Amino acid sequence: MAPTPNWLRRRAPKPEASSDPLWVVCPECNERVYKKDLAERLFVCPKCGHHFRLGSLDRVALLADGDFHEIGANLVTGDPLQWVDRIPYPQKTSQDRSKSGMLESIVVGTCRIGGIDVGLGVMDFAFRGGTMGSVVGEKIAMLLEECGRRKVPAVLVCASGGARMEEGVIALMQMAKTSLAVQRLGALGVPFVTVLTDPTTGGVSASFGFQADVIIAETGAAIGFAGRRVIDQTIRQKLPDGFQSAEFLLEHGQVDMVVRRTELKGCLTNVLRLLTMKVPA
Amino acid sequence: MNVIVELEKPLTELEAILRDLKNRQRETQGVDLTPKIRELEEKAQQLRAEIFGNLTPWQRVHMARHPKRPLALDYISRLDDFVELHGDRTYRDDPSIVAGLGVLDGIPVCVIGEQKGRDTKENLYRNFGMPHPEGYRKAQRIMRLAEKFHRPLVTFIDTPGAYPGIGAEERGQSEAIATSLKLLAGLRTPIVVNVTGEGGSGGALAIGLGDHIVMLQHSIYSVASPEPAATILWRDATKAEEAAKRLRLTSDDLFEFGIVDEVIEEPLGGAQRDPEGTIGKVLAADRRAIERLMKLEADTLLDRRYEKYRKLGSHSELVHDRAAR
């Protein structure tokens, strides 16, 4: 991997408050994995190949060739509903900020992938479950508008539990806002690719997640509209094995391909190269 | 159990007595019942004000779900003309979405509505107004027809949400909603949206992205219905009442947020107390909006639509980026 760019070092997340500082247990094969090993292997279990969730900064480092010029880096959310439950919503976001080292659940900016200029947005499950509120909507709109101005493809890596409940209907409207931005970019003939990672559900999958020209799913990702808990509550039916997995979606014709993390950059580069290739005169 | 139906029971009983008295007055000329009727009418009026004067968010959720509330087809049947079109041409016809060609006060329109049932049997047929992907794909056909034949699209939102089930997931509920949203985003014809009952989550928005949004006073509109919202937030659907309180889902809230452009007042006690009048008011509002929007060039219309949603959000620049240093 390329040396850590400055912007990333500057915003390195604080160490996790996990019980064990050195080891982690793989949820798939139950083997103990050395954390440093895991980080070196792009957070893919060396024993069984299980894909751990990847933070957005690591993801940018994995995909971008070198520099990443962030857009809207300092945007933080308001509190449109004046939401309070266990604690007030601003306190929740502030806790997530210190926990994740992120100001919000998405990072967007411009960079190169495999030598191709792109606009790249990456969501992060560590910040409020990657949920979409005002800031996610705003940053995606900013990114897609920038891609439109510069006529460069947009790539959005999704990882989200859906719309953020604490921002209520304002969060719901971000589905409309991002859809309008995607539509406008498409009308300019600019390619748009999404990478659906674990998990991609709700308002994110039901808006820009599934609006792309090419949809790539990462190995093992859970992808769907309704989360399992909501389905359980509603239909009280046992869900089939592998339900809502990336592989299940491929089989049902809903994504273009399922790709391992180690091959993601190469695959994305190929797709972008073919999408941006000019027809000879 | 609908809490409004429970709440209004004494009123319903009183109103039945009143109806009875009035009938008797008409049939028997001998006794003058007028004073008694006047007294009871005053009492009913008082009771109405007491019951409906200050509804809680949870009661308003139930008002939006009232079993007698006008449904999409009640509005649609008041059009000058309507021909229902069926099916998504791929899988099946979804009865929870009604769609077709109609005429609204002389103007040809395309219509999409989410349809609930009146009783258990109807509700099973309509899947309680929760569409499957094929419902949204039928809606997409009608959206394309609207654009192709240059007629305004009028939609009626009334759903707890898109159906969360195995078949719906297998057939791509996310893609169906996502594609509907993208189509509406670029539709080169006016879109007028009516929130007439429940506006639950992406399942509502999938026919709700538009140029002019009308909402009935006692309708609700939220990121998720209170029950799934409580499940998502606290893993406990029984906390729906609390979710309803926090979600800010009433027409007052939606108007304040700038999401809804026009709120139509309902009679005290809800639209079902004067369905004819309420439906008339809604359709008149639609007609006014259509007339105004039809004067705009398609490009202007799309720019306005873009700006309308572009500014929805609540965020700011963090001045001291503490996380950065």
Structure in words:
The complex is a heterodimer of chains A (281) and B (325). With 281 residues, chain A is of the alpha/beta class. Chain A folds into two domains: 15-52, no CATH class; 53-276, Alpha-Beta Complex (2-enoyl-CoA Hydratase, Chain A, domain 1), CATH 3.90.226.10. Chain A contains ten helices and ten strands. The N and C termini of chain A lie far apart (38 Å). Chain B is α/β, with parallel strands linked by helices and 325 residues long. Chain B folds into two domains: 3-54; 62-310, 2-enoyl-CoA Hydratase, Chain A, domain 1 (Alpha-Beta Complex). Helices cover 48% and strands 16% of the residues of chain B. Chain B contains 15 helices and nine strands. In chain B, 48% of the residues are buried. The interface between A and B is large, with 76 and 65 residues.
* Radius of gyration of chain A, whole Å: 18 Å
Structural class of chain B: alpha/beta
Mean pLDDT of chain B: 95
Mean pLDDT of chain A: 92
Number of domains of chain B: 2
The radius of gyration over CA of chain B amounts to 22 Å
Question: What is the number of helical segments of chain B per DSSP (H or I, 4+ residues)?
Answer: 15
Query: Unreliable stretches of chain B, pLDDT < 50, 5 or more residues?
Result: none
The multimeric state of the shown protein is: heterodimer
**Biggest sheet layout of chain B:** 8 strands, mixed
CATH class of the largest domain in chain B: Alpha Beta
Q: How many separate helices of chain A?
A: 10
Enter the CATH topology name of the largest domain in chain B. 2-enoyl-CoA Hydratase, Chain A, domain 1
**Terminal-residue CA separation of chain A:** 38 Å
